[in-house]
Amino acid sequence: MSDTFNQYSISSADWRKTLRQNNFRTRIVILLFFLIYCSIGMLVDMYMSSMHYPHATIPQLFHALITFKIFPLATSVMLIIAGISLMVSYAFYDKLMLLGTEYHEITPTTAQNVSEQQLYNMVEEMKIAAGLRYMPRIFIIDADYMNAFASGYSEKSAMIAITRGLMNKLNRDELQAVMAHELSHIRHLDIKLTLTASLLANLSVMVLDILFYNMIFSNNRRNSENRSGNSLAAIIMILRFILPLISVLLLLYLSRTRELMADAGCVELMRTNQPLAQALMKISDDHTQNRDQYNADYQHTPHENIRREAYIFDPMQAGIESKASVSDMFSTHPSLEARLAALGIQKKS
Amino acid sequence: MSLIVLLIIVALVGFIILTYNRLIGQIEAVRNNQKQIDIQLDRRFKVFESLINVVKKYMDYEKTTLKDVVALRNQAQQAQASGDEKTRIAAENQISTIASHLNVVFEQYPDLKANQNVLQLQEEIVSTENKLAYSKQSFNDSVEIYNASKKSFPANVIVGAFPGKLDFEFPYWQLSEQKVAEQESYTVQL
Fold first, then answer.
1. What residues make up the domain containing A93?
2. Taking CB atoms and an 8 Å cutoff, what residues of chain A touch B120?
3. What is the pairing mode between strands A8-10 and A345-347?
4. What's the rounded Cα separation, in Å, for the pair A42 and A66?
5. Domain extents for chain B?
6. Whole-structure pTM value
7. B2-184 CATH fold
């Protein structure tokens, strides 16, 4: 390992800058999701009101809705639905994360050996460094592949899980760096954020779909005098194909900025960038070396896609494919090189 | 016109309230983190005491060490009571030195090294020292956050309006210059 590490030149990481930059990016992405959601609502409203006012143009309808001359009913209903489903998913999400794995919890009293005790101590140390008010629960997953993830955002739901493979193959410093990365996800409220974003994205696509099919099947009721109806139909048609793609790209961008932030948060807590860099390289190398075995392991674990975004390392980057869907074409994590560069570690040329 | 003025006033009052509450939160965070250092010092003393008690069975060496730790601890507590921060930090630092000696001693006894309990104790020493260091770091971080927001504009205007409630001078946790020079030239002697 030290050999490969010698190929890199090490400088310090400006974690304050990384945190600031990515925080700004996050705000933009969340704002975009909110705007997209509201504009889909407005689209539904315009579509509905275009039936009542067949002679109005699109700008006229938009103006009437935005000044509340026509009450934007669909937008309001959609916002309420989003609010309720967000609250419901906040309440139940933490139960999902360990689905399908074999795991057990570690507490100071139930630690079976020194390394489990050590793991608990490390998380506690990072908790002190972060000034966190509560101690997350810690789980060990019985699996050979090296990975870890965190979930939750409150005393009740916060948890960190790591695989047995990661625990055995990293030294104390590296393991602590991984724990600091995961703890940073918790204190940055990343789970809440990605949950909100993906919920808004899914709802937008769903509403657009409903609108699309409604438009197709009610087409015969329209007449050619409807001035805005036809152009609205065109917009809905185009959006229906573009929006899912935009949502996926935005979600990936969000997930990547949050990963970089958690890396920076790890440096903030440990005040050194080398342990995390070494851990990331080890995990990546290990995944490449044992690709076939891990591929089978990941495949045999049910509900792996729930955790993929939360993992410290995206197995797909080592060529481990999950069951195909659109989002799998791109990685949820920045490349290893990009992450190391953000940590201030560059390959010597 | 009057509506606009009213809105501006409401926004201004809201901003003042938010800034005030944020600063109060940061001040309390600094205070809490300051006490966290004490908590960790106290915890360390208790851990080391029980630690040395366990190891005592194996080595005579430790009998004097335990007495040393207890004596240093008393010194630190007296200094804290009389407000003498310098003596207190000196005493606490000496306990740290004893801890690293202990780890070296473990290495010299192969039987002891293999003992599961001792491995646990060794981990406990490392973790305890880490926790202490991280609590100091966390304290300094909260001082940084508080200082940065109290000195930045326009929050400093609000701090100026409520100096008794919002304006505090928290020194960063640091070593004296003499101590820094000492630690810089320090090398391990086995």
1. 2-97+190-347
2. 114, 117
3. antiparallel
4. 9
5. 2-184
6. 0.83
7. de novo design (two linked rop proteins) (1.20.1440)
